[in-house]
Design brief:
Immunoglobulin-like; 429 residues; 3 domains; six-stranded mixed sheet; mainly beta; 3 helices
Length: 429
């Protein structure tokens, strides 16, 4: 019996030793190239940043189907975000062989600042797994503002404007002030900026409306929209990209090219027709976009044809200096004569720059004041007859009223007789 017990104990020890030696182990775990198993304490990682985990795997026996994984538990939204875990492909090891496995994890920017355990697990298909705990100290950068979202429409028609907003969050350890937010479409040369006065650590905010006016002659297609945020006295900045689809517009009425390359084009946009009543004014906004690399002087003139039915003026002036990649607008006020006849009135506007010119035909759809509401004074014989009949009827009614009043007054003036006074049950007034 004694020898039997010794034999069983020896077999169990051998099985236990064999089981241990059959497990793959991690001889070292590196976090951003810093060895962690051979040191004490924790290592620092930052919110919103990716870090790598390198595991040195060893086995003293041949093993197949080995998997290495890394995971951080305790993040509130881990069920919606798998960036805090990674797993290697399956691999095999020969006896006394080793392999370096690299994994990547990303700390969400809204993770709580705290200590976390990085759980590194090495396992094969059937044997027990080996787990290693690496202490991480999650912190934020001293200054770190990120762009959470860009809010713009999906599509826009050329010649129109869009309003955009940029959602930002301060994930740094310090409060920020004087944050500059810029929204731009570089290919179209348009941008707008706003400022956020104060943004405390861990707070989010949305910029004020940012206006981007799309040139009228923009070709249809998708264009990059860039959001840029500058902070920490403009020493730091971050950007984020999205896109918008621009649809072709029929507002593109003219284009001054003058044989210049496409980068030197001038775009002139003006509504081709306006409806206006006689004696009133119509406004034609003439928008001139200088897409060149230097400023230009533009002269706007109106053909004498407009003098036949109206007067006009240009505000602020018929001469404009437009800087490179900029747009200015001249407003043409056309005041139609009071006696102008209804109909379509054509006239021409000419825009000149650098010895080149472009003629644009405009139309004023004139509606005469007399016929604008569809009514007029009827002086025909039928109308006169009806008026006389109404007048006679009014006179007859007035005469009847006067006769009734006269009759009552006569009754009051007649004396009463004795006979009338003796009759009982009668009252006179």
């Amino acid at each position: 019996m004694k020898y039997k017990t010794i034999l069983i104990t020896t077999l169990m020890l051998l099985i236990s030793l064999f089981a241990v030696s059959a497990n793959p182990i991690a001889e070292e775990v590196y976090v951003d190239n810093v060895p962690m198993l051979s040191k004490t304490g924790s290592t620092t990682v930052e919110r919103g940043e990716e870090f790598d985990v390198k595991v040195e795997v060893f086995s003293d026996t041949p093993l197949k189907n080995i998997v290495v994984s890394a995971e951080i538990l305790g993040y509130e939204y881990s069920r919606y975000d798998d960036s805090l875990q990674d797993e290697s492909d399956t691999f095999d090891l020969d006896a006394d062989d080793r392999k370096f496995v690299k994994l990547y994890l990303n700390i969400p920017d809204n993770a709580e600042r705290d200590y976390y355990d990085l759980r590194v697990r090495v396992a094969s298909r059937t044997n027990p797994s080996e787990e290693y705990l690496i202490r991480l100290n999650l912190k934020g950068k001293r200054h770190n503002v990120i762009i959470r979202d860009i809010e713009i429409p999906n599509t826009v028609v050329a010649g129109r404007a869009i309003l955009g907003n940029v959602r930002v969050k301060n994930i740094g350890d310090r409060d920020e002030d004087g944050i500059k937010v810029t929204l731009s479409i570089p290919d179209l040369g348009v941008e707008d900026s706003e400022f956020i006065d104060d943004l405390e650590s861990d707070d989010s905010t949305t910029s004020e409306d940012l206006l981007l006016r799309i040139p009228a002659c923009t070709k249809e297609g998708f264009y990059d929209v860039v959001a840029e945020v500058k902070y920490n006295d403009y020493y730091d900045e971050t950007t984020k990209l999205t896109d918008i689809k621009v649809l072709e517009s029929d507002l593109c009425e003219a284009q001054i090219t003058g044989g210049a390359p496409s980068s030197e084009k001038t775009l002139v946009t003006v509504p081709s027709s306006q409806e206006v009543k006689a004696g009133q004014s119509a406004v034609y906004p003439i928008m001139i976009s200088n897409l060149g690399k230097t400023s230009k002087t533009y002269v706007v003139s109106v053909s004498p044809a407009v003098d036949s039915f109206a007067t006009y003026r240009l505000d602020p002036s018929n001469v404009m200096i437009v800087n490179a990649k900029d747009t200015n607008t001249a407003y043409l006020y056309v005041t139609v004569d009071e006696d102008a006849q209804s109909g379509l009135k054509d006239f021409r506007v000419t825009v000149q720059a650098d010895g080149e010119s472009k003629d644009i035909t405009l139309t004023a759809s004139v509606v005469s004041e007399a016929g604008s509401d569809g009514s007029s004074l009827d002086l025909s014989s039928g109308g006169v007859k009806t008026g006389l009949q109404i007048s006679l009827l009014v006179l007859v009614v007035l005469l009847l009223i006067l006769l009734i009043i006269f009759g009552f007054n006569k009754l009051k003036e007649e004396p009463r007789s004795d006979e009338d006074e003796d009759e009982p049950g009668q009252t006179y007034y």
